[in-house]
Automatic annotation (TrEMBL):
Family matches, as InterPro entries: Mur-like_cat_sf (IPR036565), Mur_ligase_C (IPR004101), Mur_ligase_C_dom_sf (IPR036615), Mur_ligase_cen (IPR013221), MurD (IPR005762)
Species this protein is from: Lederbergia citrea
Main location: cytoplasm
Pathway the protein takes part in: Cell wall biogenesis; peptidoglycan biosynthesis
Name this polypeptide is given: UDP-N-acetylmuramoylalanine--D-glutamate ligase
Length: 453
């Protein structure tokens, strides 16, 4: 860790706790800042805030009072989940106060170079693949960011021998100042999180900000199958490394004659790759490009891709029972992600779907539903999804109360050779705290089913 003086004796407000806020507050306190923490959860129900108070950090809990801004803060470190529409945040913007996220802190203290991965879909799989390939090549990688491990916590342990592989959301990237990854990746861009960003322009700008501080000595790996994305990153000073699943690239990562290639070099046969789905081929190409830039040989890449079956909750194979294969894709919280999962299978699919109603329709989901054998629906969007399923010609549609009921219902509708897939196309918050909780309940329900049969 680099012991920087940037924050010494500065009055800093850490807005919102959760894991990133706790780590950021402790780190800034350690770096000599005068830290105040503000969290919406009441103090008596807030063990994180209680722990920070024991460290000597000032805490204000129970609301986000705009009056806090009268205390003369020089910087705000904002939890990524708190929107810019929050009155306190709006007030800070009006005052011209700089607002960062903890990823900026991580970058400033890290002795390790960083690979930053963003995009609408595929971030976690790409991040995990890069980590696994670097690990297999004995490169001492560290994984961090939106994937679950707070980056500024990992950065405190990182040395110059490590490489930090960091998954980044648009929420995090809106709060960077100097953050500059050695290698940046944008997997793809599709409409998402507009309830937070307010517009497609703001969302895409946040994503491509990953490259705004890069120089000609850095690299930007980008999906060449999306012309709009190429246009959006045309300002970059970094060396652009494109990848494509649709056309062969002599300079970039792509496919030719059934072989995965990088700058014309054959890496491995597509038949050796066990991770299913065309969408995952995008993730694989991006990952391969990044580790080849790091000088990794082909054998570690081949070892990972011939054994990697997926990240938990992302088209994750669970088990096979009586010829039925169960897959957990609880991370599919939008139509595009669920469509990609469905397109990964040639077998008949029993689809488990539904969740939070954000007010959108499912007309765009209809083409992906054409190959679905049966729908098992739950949550607030069940009726809307039934309407889309009927339009797609699905004859078998069953409603249940939750995921736990959906598993045995799907089994009864299936036969040998079918895939039973949880890919909800919706957020989980109507019934479950997170998509991980929803996925874990699915996994537990599958195992209970298997043990009972």
């Amino acid at each position: 860790m680099i012991n920087i003086n940037d924050y010494q004796h500065k009055k800093i407000l850490v807005l919102g706790l959760a894991k990133s806020g706790v780590v950021a507050a402790s780190l800034l306190h350690q770096l000599g800042a005068f830290v105040t923490v503000n969290d919406y959860k009441p103090f008596e129900e807030n063990p994180e805030a209680q722990g920070l108070l024991e460290q000597g950090i000032k805490v204000v809990c129970g609301s986000h009072p705009v009056e806090l801004l009268d205390e003369g803060f020089e910087l705000i470190v904002k939890n990524p989940g708190i929107p810019y529409s929050n009155p306190l945040v709006k007030g800070a913007v009006q005052l011209g106060l700089p607002i960062i996220t903890e990823i900026e802190l991580a970058y400033r203290i890290s002795e390790a170079e960083m690979i930053g991965i963003t995009g609408t879909n595929g971030k976690t799989t790409t991040t995990t693949l890069i980590y696994e390939m670097l690990d297999k090549a004995y490169r001492k990688p560290l994984i961090a960011g939106n994937i679950g491990t707070v980056a500024s916590e990992v950065a405190q342990q990182a040395t110059s021998e490590n490489t930090m592989v960091v998954e980044l959301s648009s929420f995090q990237l809106m709060g960077i100042q100097t953050f500059r990854p050695r290698i940046a990746i944008v997997t793809n861009l599709y409409e998402a999180h507009l309830d937070y960003h307010g517009s497609w322009k703001e969302y895409t700008q946040a994503k491509v900000d990953i490259t705004k501080n890069q120089t000609k000595s850095d690299f930007l790996i980008v999906n060449a199958d999306q012309q709009e994305l190429l246009d959006l990153v045309s300002f970059t000073k970094a060396n652009i490394i494109p990848f494509s699943t649709k056309e062969y690239l002599e300079e970039g990562a792509s496919v030719k004659d059934g072989m995965l290639t990088y700058f014309g070099e054959e890496i491995l046969s597509l038949e050796e790759i066990v991770l299913p789905g065309a969408h995952n081929l995008e993730n694989i190409l991006a990952a391969v490009a990044s580790v080849k830039l790091m000088g990794v040989e082909n054998e570690p890449i081949r070892q990972v891709l011939s054994s990697f079956t997926g990240v938990k909750h992302r088209t994750q194979f669970i088990c096979e029972k009586d010829g039925r294969k169960f897959y957990n894709d609880s991370k599919a919280t939008n139509i595009l992600a669920a469509s990609s999962a469905l397109n990964a299978f040639s077998q008949p699919v029993i689809l488990l779907a539904g969740g939070l109603d954000r007010g959108n329709g499912f007309e765009d989901f209809i083409p992906a539903l054409n190959g679905v054998k049966a729908l098992v629906l739950f949550g607030e969007t069940a009726e809307k999804l039934e309407k889309a399923g009927r339009a797609a010609g699905i004859q078998i549609i069953q409603h249940v109360h939750n995921v736990e009921e959906a598993v045995p219902a799907a089994y009864e509708l299936s036969e040998a050779g079918d895939v039973i897939l949880l890919s909800p196309a919706c957020a989980s918050w109507d019934q479950y705290k997170t998509f991980e909780v929803r996925g874990d309940i699915f996994i537990d329900s599958v195992h209970k089913l298997v043990e009972s049969k």
